[in-house]
Design goal:
By secondary structure, the chain is mainly β. Helix content is 13%, strand content 44%. The strands form 2 sheets. Strands 1, 2, 6, 9, 10, 11 and 12 form a 7-stranded antiparallel beta sheet that branches.
């Protein structure tokens, strides 16, 4: 029931607009809580840890995703500014996976969104690998070390060193 005062229209209280606005806000909060809950805060060392050096600067990733199916992928990301992907071919769990210049099937890439440029690095420049030390798809345990020396199409390079992941995330499978 809307109150009507002398000289004012019936649309004094636009309840439909307020209701739609509150529904939209509720939807945004629900989406944020659903997807925000999947982001983890990892440590540098120990259980539930992920770490690497990006061009010599220490970085603790915000998310790690492991997909062990036929399109095997390991994704390591830092708040959407650095996203590193390893795509090993013939993935079989524990083992050493090398990436060499000229590889077209197994490859590694790194997207970097910096202050002045957005670069996409793909061409291995030597000693690019991921070594999976433990991988249990039932419990979600994934333990690996990695390194990547990559370049973009213009020859700009990025060096990811001292990389390690020790996580237990069964909800990523």
């Amino acid at each position: 029931m809307l109150l009507k005062f002398r000289g004012q229209s019936e649309n004094l209280f636009p309840m439909k607009k307020i209701y739609r606005f509150l529904l939209a806000i509720g939807f945004v909060i629900t989406i944020f809580m659903t997807f925000g809950a999947r982001c983890r805060s990892y440590n540098e060392l120990g259980p539930d840890s992920a770490f690497f050096k990006f061009n010599g600067a220490p970085v603790i990733p915000w998310h790690v995703l492991v997909r062990p199916d036929s399109l095997a992928m390991v994704e390591i990301g830092v708040s959407d500014s650095i996203i590193l992907h390893f795509y090993p071919v013939n993935y079989h769990g524990v083992g050493h996976y090398d990436f060499r210049p000229g590889d077209t099937v197994p490859y590694v890439d790194c997207e970097y969104f910096g202050k002045h440029s957005d670069n996409y690095y793909t061409i291995p420049q030597g000693n690019t690998y991921i070594e999976v030390l433990e991988h249990d798809t039932l419990s979600g345990l994934f333990h690996a070390v990695f390194e990547a020396h990559l370049a973009d199409s213009s020859g700009h390079t990025v060096h990811i060193t001292e990389g390690r992941v020790f996580i237990n995330v069964p909800d990523n499978y």
